[in-house]
Write a structure and sequence with these properties.
Length: about 300
């Protein structure tokens, strides 16, 4: 019989991979040297951030309510093209990010393998139930509006909005940048700074994007502390942080776009993220996750990040 350690790890990896399909951009982000080194942040009395880049200082107005509204709009929209059109020229970093996320998501559905033509139907996936196939068609339909472009125009739009989103410097971009640094072990100091920025932002989409690389960071710290070279035992920390992001306002219901992706690739079409997760755990593990969720939520809301080892 496989150990519960195996199943906890499986739950975390399973949820991470499926949500990766819907969150992480198809087009890989490459860190630019100036993205961390030349951008310095300082707080001001209004609670915004002063971003200094190239000697020019601009104030970023922080409004968590509007961030949550845009996130909800993305998760619930029936037309990703309309959302892209609405936000692609915005000066707001979060709106830029979700415009990119919309067109990038649809790359999976519209572009052929060689990316030269638009496909007329979603790629057939083996073993889908009728319910899963219907959901796959539904997701494909959310991207139909992009066919106003030619494939060449589409790729150009994707590249343009990607660059705009990266340069915009939203907290979700900071999370993706932290991921690259944590996972490649390139610069832990900068990775920790970015992770702190993300957690202090309280933005659930950015925190959700950070979860898997935080697990990499936690595992590395455990290995160093144990000084044994052995892989650390799996625990429920990543699972709890993922669900904490839902509690902070991210739509994790069965009708959210990301959960519709989970429906296609993993079934469980009637489950929210929390209910799907709890089905993979024993009652004792589920209680442990809920307890950690409470601790993480309190830490994030209070801005005390010691519990995360940062």
């Amino acid at each position: 019989m496989k150990s519960r350690q195996f199943f906890i790890g499986l739950a975390s990896v399973f949820l991470g991979v499926v949500l990766y399909l819907s969150f992480q951009p198809v087009s890989e982000i490459k860190l630019k040297e100036h993205s961390i080194a030349n951008i310095k942040q300082s707080s001001d009395k209004d609670g915004g951030r002063l971003l200094t880049s190239g000697g020019v200082q601009q104030k970023e107005v922080f409004d968590l309510t509007s961030v949550l509204a845009i996130s909800s709009e993305y998760q619930s929209t029936r037309d990703l093209h309309s959302l892209f059109t609405k936000y692609r020229l915005s000066n707001n970093p979060t709106e830029k990010f979700f415009a990119w996320k919309a067109i990038d998501f649809c790359s999976r559905y519209l572009l052929s393998t060689n990316r030269d033509i638009f496909v007329s139907q979603p790629e057939p996936l083996p073993g889908l139930t009728q319910e899963q196939d219907a959901m796959n068609q539904r997701l494909f339909g959310k991207c139909a509006g992009f066919k106003e472009f030619t494939p060449t125009q589409y790729r150009a739009q994707l590249k343009q909005v990607q660059e705009s989103a990266i340069n915009g410097g939203s907290n979700s971009i900071a999370a993706v940048q932290a991921n690259e640094l944590f996972i490649t072990h390139k610069n832990e100091e900068d990775a920790v700074k970015l992770a702190k920025q993300v957690l202090q932002s309280k933005e659930p989409d950015a925190i959700m994007a950070l979860v898997d690389s935080m697990q990499v960071y936690w595992d590395a710290k455990k290995i160093n502390q144990q000084n044994s070279g052995k892989p650390p035992e799996a625990d429920t920390s990543a699972v709890a942080l993922r669900l904490a992001a839902c509690d902070l306002g991210r739509d994790c219901s069965k009708d959210a776009l990301d959960m519709q992706v989970m429906c296609v690739y993993a079934g469980s079409c009637e489950d929210s993220l929390e209910s799907r997760t709890m089905k993979l755990l024993t009652p004792a593990e589920a209680d442990d996750v809920r307890q950690k969720m409470k601790i993480y939520l309190a830490a994030i809301k209070q801005g005390d990040l010691k519990i995360f080892g940062l």
